[in-house]
Amino acid sequence: MKKLICSVLLFACCRAAASAAADKEAYLHFMNGMVLERKGSYDLALQEYRRTMAIDPESVFVYKQALNLALHIGKVEEAAQWAEYVVKADSATADNWVLYGNVRWAKGDLEGARSAYEKGVELDPAAHEGIYQLASLWSSRNPEKSIGYLGKYLELRPEDSAEVYYQMAVLHNMKGNAAGVEESLLKSKAADPYYPQPRYMLGDFYEARSATAAALAEYLELTELEPRNKDLYNHIGSIYTSPAAVNLDEAEKYFLKTYALDRTDPVACYWLSIISEQRRDFPAAAAFLEGSAALKEDPDAVLRLAYYYTQAGGYKRAIGMLEKAAMKWPDNTEIAYFLALGYDDTGKAKKAVELLKGIIRRSPDNTEARMQCAVISEREGDMATAEEHFRYLLAKKPDNSNALNYLGYSLADRGLKLEEAQGFIERAVALEPANGAFLDSLAWVRYRRGDNAGALEAIRRAVAAVHDDPVIWAHAGDIYAAAGSYPAAWTAWKYSWLLEQPEKRGKAAARLRELAGKLPAGSLPALAQAYLRTFSPAGMEFSSFAKVEGKVRGKTVKFDAIVHFSPPGDFSLTVMGPLMVPLWKAKTSGGVMEMDEVALKGLDAGAFSYWASLITGELRGWFAGDHLPAVPPDLDGACYAAGPREVCLDKALAWPEQIRNSAEKRLVFKPGNYFLRGLYLFPQTFEFKLPLVSLKVTLDGRQMNFDGVNALNLPQ
Q1: Same domain membership, residue 87 and residue 44
Q2: Of 160, 155, 211, 205, residue with least CA distance to 181
Q3: Are residues 73 and 165 located together in one domain of the fold?
Q4: Ramachandran region, residue 637 (left: φ > 0; alpha: ψ -120 to 50; beta: rest)
């Protein structure tokens, strides 16, 4: 008996020791699994949990840990086995039923999941995780019921109100309940002002309802929370570019914020280039776009950058980039097409035609490529190729008005197939009766066929529709000459000369000399007077930023300035300092001149006022038209008298190049570098020479305010 008792005690002690060892081993495997799970080594972690369960098969806690991980990594079947064990081992704990419901949901058993969640909530009405899962389960099937569960969850977990109200907003949105969406989002925002999701949704909500100001208010507040969010800045910028806001200055501000964070951001680079393009600042547009990450994969971005280069005069750079793009995207016909245009623009017509023919071989119905090939071939004298392409286009689309006009004009200009040519042009005019280019073609083919009356009728309509085309005015000159109207012919050729590129004015100059010999005796001065007045903006509202450069005794000073003329005779010149602060101003109004005093060391204030008043008077006089001849001028020596002034024209008798006022002959006024704005002639520079001093005022053509539009007319 004694031996038996000892044996039993020894067995119990050994078993206790073995159990303690097993518990320690299970604990070590479990803890190792936890560490591996946190490191992201999920498969190894799960393997450790399995070892733990093998050692301690009754530990519900380990099963729960393992099934959660199994669900996370998609091992649903294994999780399901463990979930079954958990609820069998402990069916009175609400949390176990929630886990079981999660597994049933993962297996697609929605009813099983619902039943499990409801069981958990029944066991413990405060089981907030079960209530939340029920809200999630019902969200897609019954949003209203889901909202009800979220309300119960909120009572238990008010600290989660920001997220819960946000989820309610999502559900109200699914129901189409706009009022509920806005109310829930505002509550979510109030519960946690630093939670961005409801703010984004609220901004989107206002955008969808065209409440642009409210949307912008939300997004602008978000920039305080997320000051480095490029997508947010880009979105705000895009709103300002939309028709709902149309404020490019504000848009630019936010795209520049993105650009400051990332100079390669495609959205910011694109919009900043577009904004610069709107301002006709093509160098800036190119500078923004050439750093864009989109250039690596987006051929459209390459094409846009090439366009900016060409507009800024960088044809070689554009062509080089397009050549590389053509090698990268050999099947992109758009790149090939614009490369061909680049070749044509740089005098490589043969390469352009070859490239265009390649496009046509791959895509015979590419209208743009075939049309351009025809146009270049015609210009290069290959009329056979041009005609072939024009006729192909017309066979495919008989109402292609551009092809009709171009083919008709090309034939007429060469005196070929004149009757057929007129038919083509008449069809084009019938399609677009107000098209000035088509009307010009009609006038020209009639002229070629000897129909002077018909040519005059058509050319009058053409120049009334298009005022700024030197070719149309040249045609008008020849048509009027053929009709014997030499004053009108001379005037038309003079307009053509002015509108033509300087290097191409030779033909017009020759025709003007020829027509001058056919004019009625003594009529040229009157025509010259009419021409000068026609292109003068005298007496019209005008203002512009300018640069003022003065040279006094070898020293040069430079300032910004503003020039302003208001009819009939008010004028002001304001010299600006740093930050555009006015430093000095001279103005004339109602014939009275006012001028700020100047007190500078070494400067004779009396002499300064004298010369400054004269210069101001000459500037006012130019804008008022005092330099224009009141009567037909005597053009001997190209100079004429205009009141107290002697005005001398350039060699072509096109514009004044020197003006002297008899009141002070030491002052020489030289307007120069003329350019056209609204078909009116402006000198870009106003230069004044006086003893030991010179002054130049240079207008900034990009910052001019002038709304005049010159509708040119011919003398009757």
Answers
A1: yes
A2: 205
A3: no
A4: left
Structural tokens at position 482 = 């053929």
Handedness of CA 127, 128, 134, 136 (dihedral sign): negative
Q: What is the pLDDT of residue 580?
A: 81
pLDDT of residue 362: 94
Please measure the distance between the N-terminal and C-terminal CA atoms of the chain and give it in whole angstroms.
Answer: 148
The residue count for the chain: 716
The span from the CA of 658 to the CA of 512, in Å, is 23
Which residue in 235, 205, 241 sits closest to 219, CA to CA?
Answer: 235
Angle, alpha carbons 636-641-644 (nearest 5°): 155
Q: Encoding tokens for residue 133?
A: 């899962």
pLDDT for res 716: 60
Domain presence at residue 231 = no
Residues of the chain with pLDDT under 70: 1-22, 599-603, 635-637, 715-716
Using alpha carbons, select from 215, 212, 210, 178 the residue that is nearest to residue 200: 215
The reply to whether 552 and 642 lie within a common domain is yes
- Residue 675 per-residue DSSP state: E
Which tens digit of pLDDT belongs to each residue from 39-59? 999 999 999 989 998 888 888
Contact (CB, 8 A) for 365 and 333: no
Q: Which pTM does this prediction carry?
A: 0.72
Here the CATH number for the domain that contains residue 59 is 1.25.40.10
At residue 25, the pLDDT reads 85
Count helices and strands (H / E) in the chain: 31, 11
Count other Cβ atoms within 10 Å, centred on residue 507.
14
User: What confidence score (pLDDT) does residue 19 get?
Assistant: 45
Q: Check if the beta carbon of residue 359 is closer than 8 Å to that of residue 337.
A: yes
Structure tokens belonging to residue 487: 């004053």
Q: SS3 sequence, 307-330?
A: HHHHHCCCHHHHHHHHHHHHHHCC
As a whole-number percent, the residues of the chain with pLDDT over 70 amount to: 96
The phi and psi torsions of 238 (rounded to 5 degrees) equal -65, -35
